[in-house]
Amino acid sequence: MSPQSPFASTSTPTVAARPRVFSGIQPSGELHIGNYLGAVRTWRQQIEENKEDTLFCVVDAHAITVPYEAAELRRRIDGFAIDLIACGVDPDKTTLFVQSDVREHTELAWYLSSVTPMGDLHRMTQFKEKGEGKDFVSSALFTYPVLMSADILLYKATVVPVGEDQIQHLELARETSRRFNHRFGEVFPEPKPRLSTTPRVMGLDGDSKMSKSKGNTISLFEPEESFWGKLRTAYTDPQRLQLSDPGRPEICNIYTMHKAVSPKTTQDEVVANCTGAAWGCVDCKKVLFENFNRELIPLRRKREALSLPQVREALGDGAAKARRIAQATMKEVRERMGLGSLASSTVG
Ligand code: TYM
Predict the structure, then answer these.
(1) Does residue 151 line the site of ligand 1, with CB under 6 A?
(2) pLDDT greater than 60 at residue 1
(3) Given pLDDT bands bounded at 50, 70 and 90, which one contains residue 5?
(4) Residue range 178-196: mean pLDDT, rounded
(5) Which CATH code for domain 212-302?
(6) What is the 3-state secondary structure (H, E, C) of 34-88?
(7) CA atoms of 176 and 86, how far apart (whole Å)
(8) Is 130 a residue of the active site?
(9) 117 DSSP 8-state letter
(10) What's the average model confidence in pLDDT over 306-326?
(11) How far apart (Å, rounded) are the C-alpha atoms in residues 89 and 112?
């Protein structure tokens, strides 16, 4: 037996040397332009700036909270990893991995559920949206935000680049960090969201945000023809019934996307030609399509050049790097919570 009691631990919390960034994406449906403009493009910028330690994760354990096919999930994990790398989430410059390859995520989620009140989970709007009217609602869908808190806190991340729809979950993660620290001593920092300039891209139907579960998306790597086919019919300003009606760019999703991908001079042109009724909506969409293409052509080329074995190897390396951080945090967490035998407290 080791001479030191696990309950008399004097370990000081491990602190990241540089600010740490963590974010994730579910491998369900296809990577769409909302994901890209709301989150993934910001990830690339942060990797390129290289001022922070970054970890990005394909969160497969989140994707099993709704009914799914196992073979399909496996295919999507590969597909999302390929798409992310094509978007510039370069595994040579960041840590890119698959969530379930690092088992500590689910372990920490269980422990954090002991400091998460049911009432907080009942307030989560995403649970209400995804569960509403369904015959089967899993308990995993209900506790989903606890796993998300674990994803972030496991790496002691302080910055979480996400779209606006994830802010409520981030608030819960912050609250969970405070609750844990209050109960067991200072272990976790408080993570904050980092929003892109396009934190909410609306769906093609104009009714709600672009979302994999709503079928109102344009996939980022959709063939050009169908990309244009979908963009052409996308919802715009409902008050603009005829070409001679002046439009309102500030409420139009097409303008939101112009602001994300078109140069400033084009954005100004859009405002002038829309409010002045000089362009029809299809004209405006054609210009947007050209600018999307300018941005996406290099990404498409990169995607074609990637090989699956290479990508899988990179994911394995990414998981090994992530695991090292995760194991150090879990050692600390188990000690603080009084968990485990003396033998297990001395191993990773
Ligand atoms: P997910 O997979 O739904 O989406 C991935 C990222 O894309 C953003 N996003 C959008 N941004 C702008 N407009 C839209 N229409 C749009 N749709 C999606 C999301 O905000 C997200 O940033 N719960 C998360 C995944 C997750 C996670 C995490 C994120 C699990 N653990 C830890 C951050 C940290 C989700 O379902 O994202």
Answers:
(1) yes
(2) no
(3) very low
(4) 98
(5) 1.10.240.10
(6) HHHHHHHHHHHHHHHHCCCEEEEEECHHHHCCCCCCHHHHHHHHHHHHHHHHHCC
(7) 34
(8) yes
(9) -
(10) 98
(11) 29
Residue 155 is encoded by which pair of tokens?
């790496």
> What fold, for 20-201+308-337?
Rossmann fold (3.40.50)
Ligand 1, atom 4: nearest CA belongs to which residue? 25
Query: Can you tell me which residue has the tokens 């989150």?
Result: 39
Determine whether the shortest distance from the Cβ of 38 to ligand 1 is under 6 A: yes
In the chain, where are the structural domains located?
A: 20-201+308-337, 212-302
Q: What is the DSSP string of 241-307?
A: -STTSPP-GGG-HHHHHHHHHS-HHHHHHHHHHHHTT-S-HHHHHHHHHHHHHHHHHHHHHHHHH--
Ordered strands of the 192-194 beta sheet:
95-98, 53-58, 20-25, 159-161, 192-194
Alpha carbon nearest to ligand 1 atom 6, residue:
35
Residues 57 and 102: their CA atoms lie apart, in Å, by: 10
Cα atoms in the Cβ-side hemisphere of radius 13 Å centred on 18:
9
User: 75-122 pLDDT, tens per residue?
Assistant: 999 999 999 999 999 999 999 999 999 999 999 999 999 999 999 999
